[in-house]
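Sequence, please.
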């Protein structure tokens, strides 16, 4: 069992992780940037360590070398990244492995796979899971060629993107050049990777995400779905579980496909597989897998009466789904 964990985050999720750790008798170490010295999460951990001063307090939480050094110096045998910040950072997961610190999340290889939306699409296609027609692009001309092939509207996305950033809808050929420039700039600023891909835009879809949980033996289960169709600027506003208006047979297909995708990838720990459903036809498409706990995991916890963060700790410590009665 993990005995001491560094929580590489702040705010609500850091408090949430600390609470789950304490319920399991795990000692906690928190970190904080200078402006956060009075933040509530610093008073919910056994030890709070100040990060080096940085003109950008957010950047302080992105310093992999410093955070892993704090975990090592504090004698931590686990590190929980929460969501946002470094939660999908392959470098952090590898650094933890190198120092013998258990990264509470998927392996670096799985983080790398699902951090690349194009590779994730290719995996889904290989498993006969439907994906939206799309392709990697490197120029406005590539987008125009794809638009001529499948028609408009299109959706331009960052290959390494997430959280609704690095996305632009393209409704006509005249929108292509501006969308390409803006999307690539956003992707480089947000993810350090300007690579893009384009898909046919599914208008007014039902957005369904399936919560999965997997252990180190390769066993995978689902904790049903959430509907996050109500969004503003590609950001989720409201989540509902179980999803309304979802055909029973289609729901079962989505749940099984999510588990099959995670199993094929060698997934371990918590993750979310996301789909779009066309409301007119009930056709569905895989769009991405978020290899981390999500902000909205508490909705699933309420429905399933299951503490997902506690389950993360137990799986990272070697428990199986059978041990968790899942």
């Amino acid at each position: 069992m993990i005995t001491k964990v560094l929580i590489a985050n702040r705010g609500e999720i850091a408090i949430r992780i600390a609470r789950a750790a304490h319920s399991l008798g795990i000692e906690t170490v928190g970190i904080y940037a200078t402006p956060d010295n009075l933040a509530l999460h610093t008073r919910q951990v056994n030890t709070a360590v100040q990060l080096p001063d940085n003109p950008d307090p957010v950047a302080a939480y992105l310093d992999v070398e410093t955070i892993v050094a704090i975990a090592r110096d504090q004698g931590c045998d686990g590190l929980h990244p929460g969501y946002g910040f470094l939660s999908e950072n392959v470098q952090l997961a590898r650094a933890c492995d190198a120092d013998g610190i258990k990264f509470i999340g998927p392996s670096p290889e799985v983080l790398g796979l699902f951090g690349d939306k194009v590779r994730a699409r290719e995996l889904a296609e290989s498993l006969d899971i439907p994906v939206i027609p799309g392709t990697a692009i490197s120029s406005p001309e590539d987008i125009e060629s794809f638009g001529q092939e499948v028609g408009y509207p299109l959706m331009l996305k960052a290959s390494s993107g997430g959280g609704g950033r690095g996305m632009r809808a393209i409704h006509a050929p005249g929108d292509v050049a501006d969308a390409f420039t803006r999307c690539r700039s956003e992707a480089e600023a947000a993810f350090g990777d300007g690579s893009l891909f384009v898909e046919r835009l599914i208008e007014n879809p039902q957005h369904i995400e399936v919560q999965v949980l997997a252990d180190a033996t390769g066993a995978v289960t689902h904790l049903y779905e959430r509907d996050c169709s109500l969004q503003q600027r590609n950001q989720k506003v409201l989540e509902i579980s179980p999803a309304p208006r979802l055909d029973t047979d289609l729901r079962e297909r989505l749940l099984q496909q999510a588990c099959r995708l995670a199993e094929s990838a060698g997934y371990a720990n918590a993750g979310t597989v996301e789909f779009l459903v066309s409301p007119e036809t009930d056709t569905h498409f895989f769009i991405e897998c978020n290899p981390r706990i999500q902000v909205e995991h508490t909705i699933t916890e309420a429905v399933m009466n299951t503490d997902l963060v506690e389950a993360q700790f137990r799986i990272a410590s070697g428990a199986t789904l059978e041990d968790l009665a899942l």
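The chain has a mean pLDDT of 93.
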